[in-house]
Amino acid sequence: MKRSTSDRKVLLLGIGNTLLTDDGIGIHAVRLVRERAQGAGVSVSEAEVAGFALLDVLDGYDALVVVDAVRLPDLEPGEVTVVDADTMPPSLHLVAGHQVDLPTALALGRDSGLHVPSTAVVVGVQIADDRTFGTEPTPAVAAAAGHAGETALRLALALVAE
Length: 162
Description:
- This protein is an alpha/beta fold.
- The protein contains five helices and five strands; from the N terminus they run βαβαββαβαα.
- The protein has a five-stranded mixed β-sheet with strand order 2-1-3-5-4.
- It is globular.
- The two termini are 16 Å apart.
């Protein structure tokens, strides 16, 4: 049974580790738009987990917008990009069973019968440093938090309206 627009559950999710400088940019970005998103019918959450652990966070949602740190070729630190989660390249760090990328986690959730988002978009912020302990992002990445948050909010609102 297809849900009506008013029943569509959309999650705006900031992912990262707020203790590793730029890696926490997804969380910083969603904090900037949390109040407006929730007031517009979008659920907002933060996660300092990845892979299979994300399935608990994603269960029950129809659509997902993730804000996360990325390392992509040809981007400068602080640049914001939008990528469909299904077209993301697979993780190169599948060294243990609990470390899977977002597309794989979503596919496994669907295959397991969970109600996970059928639509997933990633707002990525190119990072400079994710290895130094610190609670504040580097200047170029910190300056991108507002743009990343606004981009993610706009996408989430469009998904609510679909």
